[in-house]
């Protein structure tokens, strides 16, 4: 049988080495041109149209969410002047069915004289605005944390002339989420407002509350953070990780659930509806008293850590929009100082 001569073997090794060198060079060139940040397409504005009461309704194409996302925007008074951006998150209904900041509060009028862009994402019902580990059969693909902290801010700054100074506020379920997002994206938000949210999510009571909220929306919280003993529950608990809130201006509020000044038959959002009043005084009272427990515990934890925060703990008030509107108004001076704006 004929064998490979020494010369042939040397030639073969040389050819193989040359091919290998070319492959290495190609891979190096590819790595130089495709960084991890650019390997995934950036979010883009797919459409923009006039919204309600002088707002803009945007459709944002989100690679993270794999879906078109609706975002309502209150434009700044003067986009030519550098200005901050305020993100407002809706509660467990995701801003649907008349449950958004635009539907329930005076947010448009309140920000009319302030040079800030106000961004209100729509959707996220029962999601806690988290990056879920698995797609949910009912709630679907959820990568809200990536969308809100990585995709949306640079897109909004580019479109509306933002200067990178951000604040974030949310109600109810989102009152938890805003604290989680501030911990996940350190330095992104100069100020955070948590209105009637529960910071404790990994202890038995806190986790039960989260699971109930998700289940009410048809989802399974195992797809968000895993089974009850999964470390992700502790990792995403703002109470446990409160040290990471240091350096962020914090405004945190919760009432007691006792009927307050807006809980009357002619009150805002009730307008003579007896069933609505009974629901607010009943269900709204139970929920608010529950988040009050979490809020008082967080106050004690921040005090022990020496982390400054402004707490509003009124003696009366239910889990409802008129009180959250008040919380936004009252937290604005703290936000304005943190954002260095008027």
From TrEMBL:
Q: Which Gene3D superfamilies match?
A: alpha/beta hydrolase (3.40.50.1820)
Signal sequence range: 1-39
* Keyword entries, A-Z: Hydrolase, Signal
Keyword Electron transport appears in the UniProt entry: no
Q: Name one GO molecular function term.
A: hydrolase activity
Tell me what this protein is called. S-formylglutathione hydrolase FrmB
């Amino acid at each position: 049988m004929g064998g490979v001569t020494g010369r042939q073997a040397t030639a073969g090794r040389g050819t193989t080495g040359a091919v290998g060198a070319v492959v290495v060079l190609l891979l190096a060139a590819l790595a130089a041109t495709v960084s991890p940040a650019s390997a995934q397409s950036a979010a883009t504005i797919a459409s923009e149209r006039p919204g309600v009461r002088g707002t803009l309704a945007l459709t944002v194409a989100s690679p993270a969410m794999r879906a078109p996302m609706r975002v309502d925007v209150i434009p700044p008074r003067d986009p030519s002047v550098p200005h901050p951006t305020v993100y407002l998150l809706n509660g467990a209904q995701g801003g649907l069915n008349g449950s958004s900041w635009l539907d329930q509060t005076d947010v448009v009028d309140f920000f009319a004289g302030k040079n800030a862009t106000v961004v209100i994402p729509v959707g996220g019902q029962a999601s806690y605005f988290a990056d879920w580990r698995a797609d949910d059969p009912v709630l679907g693909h959820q990568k809200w944390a990536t969308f809100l902290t990585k995709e949306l801010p640079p897109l909004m700054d580019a479109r509306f002339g933002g200067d990178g100074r951000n604040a974030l506020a949310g109600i109810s379920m989102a009152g938890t989420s805003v604290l989680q997002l501030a911990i996940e994206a350190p330095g992104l938000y100069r100020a955070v407002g948590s209105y009637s949210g529960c910071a404790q999510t990994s202890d038995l009571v806190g986790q039960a509350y989260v699971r109930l909220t998700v289940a009410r929306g048809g989802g399974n919280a195992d797809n968000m953070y895993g089974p009850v003993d999964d470390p992700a529950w502790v990792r995403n608990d703002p109470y446990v990780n409160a040290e990471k809130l240091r350096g962020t201006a914090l405004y945190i509020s919760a009432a007691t659930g006792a009927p307050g000044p807006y809980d009357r038959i002619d009150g805002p959002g009730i307008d003579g509806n007896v069933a609505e009043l009974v629901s607010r005084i009943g269900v709204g009272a139970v929920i608010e008293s529950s988040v009050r427990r979490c809020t008082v515990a967080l106050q004690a934890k921040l005090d022990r850590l020496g982390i400054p925060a402004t707490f509003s703990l009124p003696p009366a008030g239910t889990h409802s929009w008129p009180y959250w509107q008040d919380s936004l108004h009252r937290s604005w001076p703290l936000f304005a100082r943190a954002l260095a704006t008027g």
